[in-house]
Amino acid sequence: MKVKIEESWRLRLQEEFDKPYFERLTAFVRNEYAHAHVLPPGSRIFYIFNVCPFDKVKVVILGQDPYPTPGQYYGVCFSVPNGTPVPGSLANIFQEIHQDLGKPVPASGNLDRWVAQGVFSLNSVLTVRAYETGSHRNVGWETFTDAVIRKLSEEREHLVFMLWGNYAKAKKNLIDGKKHLILEAAHPSPRSAEHGFLGCKHFSKANTYLKSNGIQAIDW
Prior knowledge:
Low-confidence stretches: none
Structural class: alpha/beta
CATH architecture: 3-Layer(aba) Sandwich
């Protein structure tokens, strides 16, 4: 199957696109877009891949579902467009960066400046029905994004993987901890951030690791 996606990713993921599960996934997603309000816009499903080529990735942040509220999710996990109120999880991420690195809390929740530096912020599920969290789970997206994580682990070195919450932590077995830095913490959600996310210092730890391997740190 031919999928419109940035070339460095297409070369590595074509084997996934050619598998039967991906054909079934594509049929499901197309039907959903035809009959329901689905997020993000179809042209944005692979946005994070298109703006962060395979060899540019430095840090991988794993999420679960896109924001289900229209106007929030545009293809980057945890990020929202300029002018959109900052969701609770992202507000806690900004608070932790402020405590960890002393940086001021941004007014905008748009994380494209991180992506431009190599922060690959990926949801495990890439589409969702509006207002229906989890509506596109277990239809094939997880199989695809697990393959993405494995590719990054196998073909790259010295990446930082940030696993927040039990769902993301369950992906640890896809990552070679001898080649990469795996950072685990509670999810930054307002329901759980105080139970191990706030105070985790993941952002300074990531930069220390990157610099120790001759890689430019992220300006969080």
